[in-house]
User: Fold this.
Amino acid sequence: MAVYKRAYRRYDGPLTGRWTRFMVLPRYAWRRLYQQRLVLLLTMAAFVWPLLCAGFVYLTNHVELLQGLDPEFRAFIQVNGRFFSIFMYVQGACAVFLAALAGPGLVAPDLANNALPLYFSRPLTRWSYALARLTVIVGMLSVVTWVPGLLLFGLQVGLAGGWWFLANWTLGVAVVAGFLLWLLVLGLVAMASSAYVKWRVVAGAVSLAFFFILTGVSQMINGVFRVTWGYVLDPAWAVNRVWRALLGLDPLDGPGALSSIVALAVFVLLLVLVIERKLRPVEVVR
Amino acid sequence: MTQPAVVFEEISKFYGEVLGVNRVTLNIPPGITSLVGPNGSGKTTLMNLMTGLIFPDHGRILMRGISPRDPEALMRMTGYATQYDTAPRWATGFTFITTGLLLFGYGRSEAEERAWKALERLSLTDAANRKVAAYSKGMRQRVRLAQAIAHDPELLVLDEPLNGLDPLVRAETIDMFRAWAAEGKHVIISSHVLQEVDLISDQVVLIANGMIVAEGKIRKVRDEIEEHPSQYIVRCRESDASGVAALLFGEDHITEIKLNDDRMGMLVMTRDREQFARALGRIALDGHRIESVVPADENVDALYEYLIGGER
Amino acid sequence: MTPRSVQGRAGQAWTIAKIELRRVFFARRSFWVYGLALLPSVIFLGHGIDAKTDIERLGRRGLTAPALMDSIREGESLDDVKKRVGQPAAERWSVRSRRVRQRTGNAGTTTHPIEPPVGARFVRLNITRPSFNGEPVARIYEFEVYGPDGRANLALHRPATGSIPCGQDQGPEKAVNGSVTGGQADRWCAADWPLFLQVDLGAVRPVQRFVVKHASAGGENEDSDTREFNIQVSENGKTFTTVGSSTGGGYVDERTEVRQIAYFDGRRRADLVFIDGRVQHRNVRRLLDFEEDRAIFAGIFQYFYLRLAIFFGCLGIFMYLFRGEMSNRTLHFWFLAPARRDVLLAGKYAAGLIASAVIFGGGALLTFAAMIWPHDAVEVQAYWNAGGMGHAFWYAAAAALGCVGYGSVFLAIGLYLRNPIIPAAVLLTWESVNGIFPHVLQKMSILYYLQSLCPVPAPMDSDTPTLIRLLAAPAAPASRPGAMLGLLLLTAFVLWVAGLAVRRMQISYGAET
Assistant:
């Protein structure tokens, strides 16, 4: 007969907070990512453009340095929506390459090495896991996108004064919101390709190819049908369109910001579906 | 004419800076040979070297006279059942083996026939048309074995072949090995289960940290280990045990005697087996009744313990 | 069958190829390759269906004479057009709303009347948003103050003070000097916060109207006009009251009524856009333009199909043959077969090649067919007679040879490197900038040969920047046989290099993810 010895007591002391627990995954992932030389190199390289832009901001705010220039040109090189849009273009492109480099390591190794059951047998839901992975890549990309953007904006405010801020605070919001949208798209593409293609070697190529191919498809449709709505199928174009609307720039030919946002929402939804289907701890083989 | 043998001449293999195997020299005759050693000692490395999946940095290998650099000739007479548990996702057990056989140049019908025979030998006919990915671990083990034997190879290299098999299949497989060994084939097995190694092997190769520690027939290996005295269990009739023990104590090659609690047996440790045998003979002829004399450590367990265990 | 003879080995390679073929064609992960290859044909098919339904739909409403369609001119009113040309085949009405920058008054001058007049000695212009383009610099060419009689500018040549000016010759006195034509030296310009300009009229006078001449009044860009400002008056110079200000936030919604109608003459469609009742845009185009479609096909073939679809499709198929198997830990099965390593390479390459050539060559033909399908039978027949069949053949051949070239390159890359991103990116860039390389280096690119095989040169938009045009155009395309020979030689070389690697390859699982 079994004798139950009531000697075992569960731990009932304080538990670490929910967010601390949540951040365990990202913390280790970030550490691992930045140990890779290539990631570090690319991140460093991605700071070159913000530094150049900061120099530009400094120049435009010290009018005495620009004395000799044509006044029309001086009016052109202002820190306004157009300046920030050029900044965001280049940084957005850097972010794509960084995502292709770092994205594959997100989910693919866990799937290939059958680690998902290990994760999900702990108090970690599928969605927390997915969110944690997304945080990894969004966090990593933030460092090269809206953080320098915000710093640039702050630099401009500091040099130009409070009234410039009152006049142009929408630009700061546009930079942050625009970049967050782009990072969401990038992060989901990287995660979906990492989850769908089990080996990281190809997942990176897939996330890069995604953007190239979708751009090609949208160009094809526009060319063959002689229309401009094809642009909406290209998430890079759609995000750019939203940026232009947020920054108050003139729109290019083609669908408006609203249709772009709808297309992006559909795109994001599809990616989330793919991720949901692939993040299963158990795979059934028939 | 010399027997065909598996010959390793001063083989070394480095993985970057880590040493895989170090100056391995082996001469393995036909029959069942077991590679015994702790995890990471280099057993799989040796097997991969034998079959040409990896190349040595130093030295030469001859498998029954054929170099592993010549897969066309070697693979025809070699079957390798690896420990890698992956199989192509599209394969059923039957197609898995058939496809492998097609590469040997057999026609489709002959390939299917051979595949079926191999599956029968390993009792997999029921599951032959199911996907390998859906097999249980033991079934996957068996299908790998089946693939290795389907083309009737002369040389079988099997990496932990009895791992995960239930006792009935295990016994049948061991019988299969014995039958092949009897036909003069090479059967090279790596194993952890020392009792089985004892049971089935003709030769044993002990390997630790990439170096060969001992090679040859079990008894011969034991003979050569002089540091550890041989252990024998001597069973006598009740009254005679202490008497026998007292007489044995007189011999100078005896190092230790432990009497059993039931006073009918003892464990004797002796440095010299020959003299011990003669001493026992004299004692028996003097009238003491000795029921049985059994060597207590002429098995791989003891060998492992003596040669490898201490180095941990 | 003696395995060591050449026939034996070839037979082995063929067996290997057959085994791999089944996998490449039917593996689930190959489906996206099919998708890539079929995408252009789906698009062309969609266009064909769209155009045909359009023709049918517009035709049902009645055809217009082509001459009448051509006679519509810009500026005509809607009623005139409808009366002369007839009922349109399609009509649409919408309201377009645009945010436009509010024009600063009339030619850069704003006027601010006060009713009733007030007495003031000090008049002050405060600027809260100095420009539309974000530049933090205020520019005022003239600040005029008028009394009830409305004739004399009370502020002319009066003492003026203000924020620190941009330069010595752009002080506040320039805003009351009575002229605006002197360029930059004729204006008050300041960048120091707070921005203000104050004029002392000398004595308390009744004032009724203010006129401010901003940057565009002096000939500068409208974007430099003052965006937000207000006008204050004071009798004693200490307490000020606001009497006028800029209107609006600078941007207003401009709503225009847009009407779009379309006429159809059986082949061409005239789209007219009426803004505020008058023709603003006129666009006549053929619904099915065979020549244009062929040019678009050529462009899509060269820019999408060759550079992207075949590139990435071959990347996927050929990288899997060795590197993928190494990742999946199934490569050792192939190495344990009684076949030489180069026979294995040949077999796998053959399988990948057959599969990709069939998929992409077939895809090219399918797209060609989809492009041709909706067009008029007479035109198509003329095209066939003029060598159209040859075009189709060369497109398919170029696609297949693209698989030959790219396949060998990616097979070799897969044998040497674990991660294909970097070499793929390098290759993509190499092929893209091929146009500017010296001739010798140009021959080391697969796309160079493929472009020489394409029957129709790809069209280039005239508004593509010169740099891109330079990069994308093939410099001196080789002759067709020369191109094929060059490609085959390049492929043979790459395969030989791959053979070196495969013979040295060792199984090292566990190093993969």
About this structure: The longest strand of chain C covers residues 109-129. Chain C touches chain B at residues 1, 3-4, 8, 11-12, 15-16, 19, 23, 26-27, 328-330, 332-333, 335-341, 504, 506-509 (CB under 8 Å). Chain C has two domains: 16-54+289-504, 109-249. Residues 109-249 of chain C form one domain.
